[in-house]
Amino acid sequence: MATLYRTRALFDSVNYALVDYHSASDIIIEKASVHQSFGVSALAVHGLIESYNEPNLQDSVSKIDLIVPDGQPVRWALNAFFKAGLKDRVYGPTLVLHVLEKANTSRLKIYLYGSRTETLKKLTAFINEHYPKITVCGIHPDRFREATPEEDIEDIRRINESGAHIVLVGRGCPRQEKWVGNHVGKINGVMMAVGAAFDFHAGTLKQAPRWMQSSGLEWLFRLIQEPNRLWKRYLLTNSQFIFLFFKYKVKSISNFRIQSI
Fold this sequence. Notes:
Blueprint: E1 7-10, E2 14-17, H1 21-33, E3 38-43, H2 45-53, H3 55-62, E4 66-69, H4 72-82, H5 92-106, E5 109-114, H6 117-130, E6 135-140, H7 149-162, E7 166-170, H8 175-183, E8 190-193, H9 197-202, H10 210-214, H11 218-225, H12 227-260
Parallel strand pairs: 3-4, 3-8, 5-6, 5-7, 7-8
Antiparallel strand pairs: 1-2
Helix pairs in contact: 1-5, 2-3, 2-12, 3-8, 11-12
């Protein structure tokens, strides 16, 4: 039986699980081994703020069973507001490696959904080399648009008939969170929204140095890599996160004083 976990709603929006790599990967493997339909997302600041701003996205995210605190700022906020005691974030690409290691031991089947054909081929080669007991039972490049109802039915059929225990979903945030949330109960396995993990482990995108990751500066490294695509995302979401952090900090202090009177 995997470790039980508690959740806390950050900014009254996203229910984060208070887990580490070990407990999160144990939960995922436990659910995958019995083909339980189970949604997982590694959600950093961008996904949190998108969910806060968009009720429709928040509805999809609320259907995801296990949301782990991907970014250091998310971890800091959970510790500040809830005394969560999280010693590290649960970074999506690293969580994938923990899951692959345990899936390899259990000889599970993995399906790759999203990204580009070339990236999927390189990611498949990476898995075959490092985790030879895993079967990559299917790949599906992203259409870079939403599937029609007919296409979606066919996608579900293919994934389920492949016998996949785990579906790694790399469609970018928040498209991947919408897909995972809306397919809980339809896919007979664990679905993990892990975004850039596809490119990092395929070797098509370089990860930030460890010191930048631990300092919460990975966003800056990625901004330097892809300025045209990411500048607006980080300018808006990071600014709003800082605003909300202080807003809720003041609110929590006020509530404490009222309760103390």
